[in-house]
Glutamine ABC transporter ATP-binding protein (Floricoccus tropicus), 248 residues
Amino acid sequence: MTDTILKVENLYKSFDKKEILKDIDFSIEKGQVVALLGPSGSGKSTLLRCLNGLENIDSGSIFFEGENVDLKEKTWEKLRPEIGMVFQSYDLFPNKTVLENLLIGPVKVQKRNKSDVERNALKWLERVGLKDKSDSYPNQLSGGQKQRVAIVRSLCMEPKLMLFDEVTASLDPEMVKEVLELILELAKTDKTLLIVTHEMSFAHKVSDRVIFMADGEIIESSSTSKFFKNPKTQRAQDFLQSLDYINL
Ligand SMILES: Nc1ncnc2c1ncn2[C@@H]1O[C@H](COP(=O)(O)OP(=O)(O)OP(=O)(O)O)[C@@H](O)[C@H]1O
């Protein structure tokens, strides 16, 4: 039996009267890992931002665990901690140590017990090989280390759904692997992840399902193996070819 965590219906979003997202319909089941793929400018980041309440939608509905998310009712304030988002830029507080960065959300915002949160945070840091950096400041870390801290920061909020928006896009190539490996590890647990990435081999490896967007619309939604082996639409075929993606 499946258990839907997120359901989006007929979502529309425009900027300056230009439609950016059109009739977006999809759902994500608990524990699923979904790759959101598509050419640059197709609306992937805008969609993630709408799902996290960072952008208002023009029309349509978003249901989180069956509850209709209504901006006017301020449902987002309650739901935002349930949906973690990791961005391309790590956005760590520069004047706080790694550990302090990890504690702010759970302790200050979620009002959770500090020593419990700290224990959990240190456990995560150990798991990602950064326990010795807990007292370091962000500017003492490499880009890959900062991004792993940003992912751990989101994990410390214990979100039910995590959104990743091109989290390796600003990293030097040698640091991409360590971040992707962490997400691959998370994908093997029961976490529910929606991942925007331009790294096709990673998308292939990490996800159960692909949602392919172009020009603000969902063009294709299928299992990952089907999408990469035999994309249904010409748009998706062209997209994969333009990236020289070779299915090995
Ligand atoms: N705040 C904004 N104001 C006006 N236009 C915007 C805004 N944010 C995004 N857009 C436009 O919306 C379209 C979709 O952008 P978006 O960043 O969502 O695409 P994307 O698929 O994530 O692209 P990329 O893969 O390059 O990150 C683009 O044409 C972009 O210029």
